Amino acid sequence: MPRIISRKVVFFFCIAGWAIVLSSGSFPTVVWAQKAEIVQGGRELFVQHCAACHGTNAQGTGPLTSHLLGHPANLTQLSERNGGTFPFWRVYRVIDGREAIAQHGPREMPAWGNWFQIPEDEGHGPGDWRDQVRGRLWQLLMYLESIQES
Prior knowledge:
By secondary structure, the chain is mainly alpha-helical. The protein has helices at 7-24, 26-49, 51-54, 88-95, 129-146. Helix 2 (26-49) crosses helix 5 and helix 4 (88-95) packs across helix 5. The N and C termini lie far apart (65 Å).
């Protein structure tokens, strides 16, 4: 007659297995490699869509600065201006157009068009435009968080 293993025993071995994986050092290496790739993708998006105003160093010194109504923000100081914590969701809302910034233009048409604006209509499936926009936003935010000065 086969022995039945209790749920507690299975749960214990699952937890023990994860503890071994996490303590081995291989799991964090994969995570950091993926984070570096995400940050690099965000940097590329920044250079393509934001550097003209904010500068390649993100300090508000882009070549179009003299043509703007106001001076672009120094994006390397966002955490410092927020008590040492990167204001992820506020920056997300500014970039996707939900929180207005005069220099970005009206919320219906931010300076970068719909590249970072989540469309109103509901789409479904893995190729959905909304998911693609969220992915770009996440990459850009991970990059901005990575360049914060202390």
